[in-house]
Amino acid sequence: MTSTPTTDNLSPRQRWLPFAVKMLLGVVFAASAVAKMLSIDSFEIYVYSLGWFPLPAALILSRLVIAIELLLAIGLLSNLCARLTTISTLLALTGFSLFLAIVALSGRTDNCHCFGELVDINPVRSLAKNAILILMTLVAMRTRQWNWRPFPWLWPLVVAAPIATVFIVSPPDNWLFHTVDEPYNKPMFTRHVEEPDGLLHLAPSNSPRILAFYSPGCHFCRLAATKIGTMQQRHDIDSSLFVNIFPQAEPSRYDDFFAETLSPRYRQLNIPPDTFLHLTYGMFPLIMLMQGDSVHATYNYRTINEQEIIGFLSR
Q1: According to the model, what pLDDT value does residue 38 have?
Q2: Are residues 68 and 166 in the same domain?
């Protein structure tokens, strides 16, 4: 009759291997959380671009994912609550893998942001990575827990610290930025609107519409285009109400812009670069809500308000 070995009768090598694997897992989760934080704007837009959540929820959810990874990293690296930590890690990896499988089956092959913009990895490859991490977690479950026990009052602080850190370092835009009309060159804009082939000739004249001023090489313009495109698709708004305005550039630059943003190619107007810069005062993206010839509201990337925009366009 054989008995199952425990951590007490394992050889030194057998004890240290699970410990080393557990430390490596902790480093991986910490690196993943930090990488997401460094590119939080891209990560939150990726979560929103899935179309599953309204914008405010996507902003919060993306930060909660980072907080969970930080909490798991703390548990793994501290080697406290060994069983609870490894089981939580297995559950998290299973949840992340289910999410990646759904995304892969939906046909998306862009960066899943598992390591932010630090590593460009698609959902299928990330699933393979998670399979390795799950095997590592199973090995780490044999780690012997340290005897040190922190004071009970310390646990709430350990749980709250990662969450508070993420939301303090990078609070959601809707917590800090509120709808304030962005400046633009009003006299010049009025002149271009009144021209027969001006800024509004591509959009229905009597309907509410949205004009989006983007520069193809602007990082935040690309994020804004993903935001606007996701809004339009989530709420099934008539695409003819959207007009993109770009400075004139090589056609390949527009192709690169839409390939990265995965946003629809709405009606597009290309204007001379100097006109574009003077209209926007060199600050873009600039998003305009218009009714007839009147500007109802203007936004930059951070003040885009989903509820207000969809409510206006749905009139």
Answers
A1: 93
A2: yes
